[in-house]
Design goal:
Number of strands of chain A: 15
Largest interface: A-B, 56 and 56 residues
CATH superfamily of the largest domain in chain A: Stage V sporulation protein AD
CATH class of the largest domain in chain A: Alpha Beta
Shape of chain A: globular
CATH topology of the largest domain in chain A: Peroxisomal Thiolase, Chain A, domain 1
Mean pLDDT of chain A: 96
Radius of gyration of chain A: 18 Å
Strand content of chain A: 15-25%
Order of helices and strands of chain A: EEEHEHEHEHEHEEEHEHEHEHEHE
Distance between the termini of chain A: 19 Å
Oligomer: homodimer
């Protein structure tokens, strides 16, 4: 049973393992520096479907299928699953996973979804409720653009602080029994709102939420940043990452030497013209499952603190002049 | 620790209690047959805010505040909370609860959200992870109409099978210690898709999901429908309720004498011109917290099976011709 520390941090008693994992991506992700890390790259943005939204569903269908196949598991071996995405009413997830007929609990945390799913799966495995739980998420550049910004056909100019929604999905099977990597501890995030209203600068909106959860995790667990090979944020991009590091510096906590951001790692930002970097649920999901989990499994790295960040905004309320509240959850994943 | 039965049903070992609860509604809900059951009625659809969306947030802020006040709890006494709603990116929840600064886990299950929140809170309390967990949800007629159908100003004619989204919110505090009502067991739902495509007939789309989870619950727990004072569906309305009862009859399970539907109960359907009845996350949330939980607390009724149902549709994918997959979760709540 997980042990609760003061700041909504839970230490696992018998750390659940990440039994299997898979990542899939789109064309831009395949052409980026992590292209070879994905289990599957889809060059067609429709993934043979008729619409971008249905294409995004294919990403989740693929990542869950591959994660199950790698572990020789069938859908009926899974107790239940958590899933969510950025699309209105999370339909990327609904249509992606419905045919598996696995008992399902929908989650919404914007781009923090991968961390929320891992966190809940970890807590429920360590407490004995579940033996095998799946967590999945996705995002798609084309479906996100037309929902959050403009139709692609409009050809709008993007600001330098804007981020590029990744076309990707990550899926994990969390298990009460198995080998590394292990989920050692989690911190549940709080909604943080520093008053940012620019929907083209979500890194700045999300950095304070990452700061809040990382500082609470480090304080609760009495760990120094250097304990971790990497402190991995989801998709702060260049702007948000700089802001996070400077917020930490003000508290005299230096994370610069171990900080990595999935949004910066996913693309060759200059060459691929990705402005401030990647974003989207699939960004942190894909990079975690494609890059970090294999290194933890092989023992090449020992510990990461995975902090996916989400901007809890909607175009409707943004147009009404409201701020962009954000949230981030922290998950300590270890090779030991 | 909850004990898992075959069909994703969990029996609580030490049943957590619903320590406190609150329901708030709008003008139509106040004028309906349950008007006196709400803790607070808001006659102003804006709830003193500038927009309907911000108004919906006020509903959640109110219901959480009242639920905490009734139990003499402060936000810092809550371990974490689950919340979600129907609005794109669940912003009703985000802006409603952010000022409480309670560690937050967003969920999305359309109108099944109250059952999903109760279910997760129950599992996590019984397994010792949380001592006090809040679950909240809401819906708002005006914000839902313009998002899912037409702007109110358009004055569109509604079909007889259409349902009226309730302006309401329900909030509960689930606790590992306390007095009745208790959460005795839960069944996690699966996504069910019977091919319905009419967004003005969501009762029909959701009935098969309710059927799936109710039959699994009854089979797993070896209970007959007559064991329950009421089997309470969320918002099937008149059309979906008839369909559910006839689906059950085909399996030779008669629930007609104990079946109640929150969407039918909330309004005087003929007099208030509510077509097929009420719907929305706040419909089942408000009726559970305003009508059923007080009766369970007083011992007037002994057992209910609460089955909130959700249509996992979005206007985007509905316009693309896709079906309306649905989900329902079951929660057995008892006075003993």
């Amino acid at each position: 049973m997980p042990v609760r520390l003061s700041g909504a941090t839970y230490i696992m008693e018998k750390p659940p393992c990440i039994y299997s994992f898979a990542s899939v991506g789109g064309k831009d992700e395949g052409e980026g520096p992590l292209g070879n890390n994905f289990d599957k790259i889809n060059d067609d943005p429709y993934m043979t479907s008729k619409t971008y939204e249905q294409g995004e569903s294919q990403l989740q269908k693929q990542s869950v299928r591959i994660a199950l196949e790698k572990a020789h598991l069938k859908p009926e071996n899974i107790d239940f699953m958590f899933g969510g995405d950025l699309l209105n009413q999370c339909i990327g997830t609904t249509f992606g996973i419905k045919d598996y007929e696995i008992p399902f609990l929908g989650i919404y945390g914007a781009c923090s979804t991968m961390a929320e799913g891992l966190l809940l799966s970890g807590l429920l495995c360590d407490s004995g409720v579940g033996k095998k739980i799946v967590a999945v998420t996705s995002s798609h550049f084309c479906s996100a653009e037309r929902q959050y910004r403009f139709p692609l056909e409009y050809g709008g100019q993007r600001t330098p602080t804007a981020q590029h929604t990744a076309t990707a999905s990550g899926a994990v099977v969390v298990s009460s029994e198995g080998t590394a990597p292990f989920i050692r501890a989690v911190t549940i995030g709080r909604i943080v709102d520093m008053g940012i209203t620019d929907a083209n600068n979500m890194g700045a909106a999300m950095a304070p939420a990452a700061f809040d959860v990382i500082t609470r995790f480090l304080k609760d667990t009495q760990k120094a940043p250097g304990f971790f090979d990497y402190i991995v944020t989801g998709d702060l991009g260049k702007v948000g990452s700089e802001l996070l590091c400077s917020l930490m510096e003000k508290e005299k906590i230096s994370i610069g030497s171990v900080h990595k951001d999935c949004g910066i790692m996913l693309y060759d930002i200059e060459k691929q013209d990705m402005h401030a970097g990647g974003s989207g649920c699939g960004c942190s999901g894909g990079v975690l499952c494609g890059y970090f989990l294999p290194k933890l499994k092989s023992g090449e790295i020992k510990n990461i603190l995975f902090v996916a960040t989400g901007a809890l905004m909607s175009p409707t309320i943004n147009q009404q002049g409201e701020t962009i509240p954000s949230i981030a959850h922290a998950v300590w994943i270890s090779a030991e």
